Amino acid sequence: MIINRRNFFKAMGATAVALSIGKEASASAGEILQNDDELNGMLYDNTKCIACHGCEYDCAEAHGLEYPDIPENPPIRKTNEAQLTVVNTYETSKGPMHVKVQCMHCNQPACDAACLTQAMHKMEDGPVVWREDKCMGCRYCMISCPFDIPKFEYQSTNPRIMKCDLCYERQKEGEMPACAYNCPQEALLFGKRRDLIKEARKRIHEEPEKYIDYIYGEYEAGGTSWMYLSGAPFEELGFKTNIQKSSYPGLTKGFISSIAPVDILLPAALLGIYEATKSRTNHSTEEEE
Amino acid sequence: MDKTQIVYTDNKDNKFWKFILNELKPKGKIFTLFNIISFPVMVLGIIIIYIRFRDGIGAVTNLNQEIPWGLWIGFDVVTGVAFAGGAYILVFMVNILNMKQYKPILRVTVLNGFLAYLFYSAALLLDLGRPLKVINVIIGNNFGVSSVLFLVGWHFLLYMLALLLEFSPAIAEWLNARKLRKVLTGISLGAVIFGITLSVLHQSGIGALYLMAVDKIHPLWYSNYLPLQFVVASVFAGISMVILEGSISHKVFSYQLEKDAHHQHNKILTGLSKICAGALFAYFSLMVIVFVHGKDWKYMNSGWGSWYLFEMIGFVILPMILFYFSYRHKNMILIRVAAVLTLLGVILNRMNISIIVYRWMDVERYVPTWQEFVVTFTIIFIEVWVFRWIITRMPVLRKSPEWVRGDH
Ligand code: SF4
Ligand code: SF4
Fold it and tell me: Which of A114, A136, A273 sits opposite B134 (nearest CB)?
């Protein structure tokens, strides 16, 4: 094994560079898929929503879950393993306003990047779905999702991860998601992301006094397939407004891309040191003798 | 002719199994303090594990939709892996840097590392909702190659194999398998090199697991440098564990050691404390750089700020000074104090990131159930039992058999 000093230090330097990419984790974040606009998505307009909670029932029915038990004037609720969507009502500076909560179907989902079995996966046409036969129940998707959407059946011996799947099964049969299909107010608009953004801009442009000039989901977490229009400031409606505008998987990209170089270069470096120290001690023992 | 042949092999097999059976019997006193405490805990722990599989994870833990990873992951895996880091550091020092003076404690450290990994994986399986599906990751029918957890898992698994290989000569010596030992020592350089590489990556990978939780971890603890921070921490965490564990087993198993071992061990400890002081200093510098670069002073004025300072001053700066001081003055007691402080600090930091400052703005806090604690202790106790079983049988602390030295 011949490794001369110079090559050896070269290898060391390369390893150090590779390691330092890991530190610059967020550097390459924020790149956007080319076909983002072609994804199926949803636009929810809370100026149209009347909080009839119909979509909560429709969602339960479409996913074989029990009908939720919704009290009059319900408090602010979260989604859970038995309820994949909820509609909350907030008192805002513009009067009472509603928000439908469910998975955002991120364009570059953290949950998908986190999942080590690809059980959580973004389908080509937009929905982020969970696949029972693959999931091992590690719950790393829950740690990673910035919107706290995946829920886990803690009380089950064969637990599932539960979240909105944009009615993937219905979509496969050419139907739109159950909530959008049934909404009596047409507060939910299903379509291609590009068309949804166009429509949202149009609504804001035509009635600027009615809408906040912002489409939540256009850039959040690198863009989501589910987007919101609102009549009141988003921070008054329980939205996470500190969500970064670049994608979450971007945060780990640097680390992940440094793995292969380290796996290759570090052994070489180690072998180099091994040879170097071995000959040094041989040398010194010879001198001692 | 044929017949005798068969009888002969039979005989040999018999002897082998007799030897194994004999070795399975307990050696030493049964009613020691440790046994009296650990046995009931282990029985209880196994009952709880049974309930966990019968009724689901929610039946025995306080985990919820907001806190999906609790004590089992936060302590057993996230913290435990750092404690097991001593194995790769020592292997690096002895086998790569050729620092022969540390050789006497190499085997026991490697054994410790291997057992730790084995039992942490067990803890991990307990925490998985659908543990049988782990097979998906291993047979590769679904590789999530962009997943940090996937990469950590694979590096973890392969490293366990490397550790087993590094330890295997001791097993061969115990079984008196001369040829086998030769083969095993032959491949050990490969195992050493890949073992270190795999370690660097999974130690940092555990930090990288939390990179996407940027909105959930308190900004004082979160940074892009988490992976680097976790590798550096694994150096002093691992060595402190070696110091502490070595001190204990030198007391408990002193009858296995040669006469001059004690003096030698003290020398080893002072050497290690120098390295620890250095690693702590590197860690401290890293934290300062990270703080100056990105952290907001406004967080320092809150309770979280004091909590952060408590961790940095009490469990990074203080042990760093103690290690340096005890290295200069060859103070064996102080070394152990510093090691304990360092270990507590690593526990504190990792528990902070995984549990305490995770979702720091939430009002509802996660507190582990007593069952979660019992299971954690059960895993540690079983590990200690297995460790003791091996130490009393295989040449780990004591010298290898005569024939080994002849083989070299
Ligand atoms: S909102 Fe969460 S669960 Fe939904 S796609 Fe995004 S990361 Fe995944
Ligand atoms: S819990 Fe299931 S879906 Fe979520 S990351 Fe783990 S394996 Fe993937």
Answer: A136
For residue A142, which atom of ligand 2 is closest to its CA? Answer: 4
Q: DSSP alpha helices (H): ranges in B128-260?
A: 134-138, 148-174, 178-186, 188-208, 226-252
**Rounded average pLDDT over A257-283:** 82
| C-alpha to C-alpha distance for B39 and B31, rounded to whole angstroms | 10
Q: Using an 8 Å Cβ cutoff, are B129 and A150 in contact?
A: no
Give the length of chain B.
408
Q: Any idea of the CA torsion for B79, B81, B84, B90, to the nearest 10 degrees?
A: -120
Q: Are strands A95-101 and A120-122 parallel, antiparallel or unpaired?
A: unpaired
Instruction: Flag if B227 and A22 touch (Cβ within 8 Å).
Output: yes
Report the residue among A33, A81, A100, A111 best suited for mutation to probe ligand 1: largest number of ligand atoms under 8 A from its CB: A111
Contacts 24+ apart (CB under 8 A), B313-322: B314/B341, B314/B345, B315/B341, B315/B342, B315/B344, B315/B345, B315/B346, B315/B348, B315/B349, B316/B280, B316/B283, B316/B284, B316/B287, B316/B345, B317/B284, B319/B276, B319/B280, B319/B345, B320/B277, B320/B280, B320/B281, B320/B284
Residue in A28, A84, A139 to test binding to B, most B beta-carbons within 10 Å: A139
Partners of A88 in the beta sheet?
Answer: A99
Residue listed under structure tokens 């006497």: B104
Fold of domain A35-252: Alpha-Beta Plaits (3.30.70)
Least confident of A13-22, A135-144, B378-387: A13-22
Contact call for residues A233 and A212 (beta carbons, < 8 A): yes
CA atoms within 13 A on the CB side of B406: 5
The 10s digit of each residue's pLDDT in B150-163 is: 888 888 889 999 99
Strands A188-192 and A40-45: antiparallel
Predicted structure pTM score = 0.86
Q: Mind listing the pLDDT tens digit for each residue in B184-215? A: 887 788 889 999 999 999 999 999 999 999 99
DSSP state of B264: H
DSSP letter (8 states) at residue A190: E
Tell me the C-alpha distance between B297 and B306, whole Å: 12
Residue A126 to residue A105: CA distance in whole angstroms: 7
Distance of CA B34 to the CA centre of its chain: 21
User: What's the gap in Å between the CA of A195 and the closest CA on chain B?
Assistant: 30
Residue with tokens 């024939």: B403
Entry field: residues in chain A: 289
In 3D, which of B232, B269, B248 has the Cα closest to residue B346? B232
Domain ranges of chain A: 35-252
User: Averaged over A141-166, what is the pLDDT?
Assistant: 95
- Mean pLDDT, residues A140-148: 95
Nearest CA in chain A to B52: A157
Query: What backbone phi and psi angles, to 5 degrees, belong to A94?
Result: -105, 20
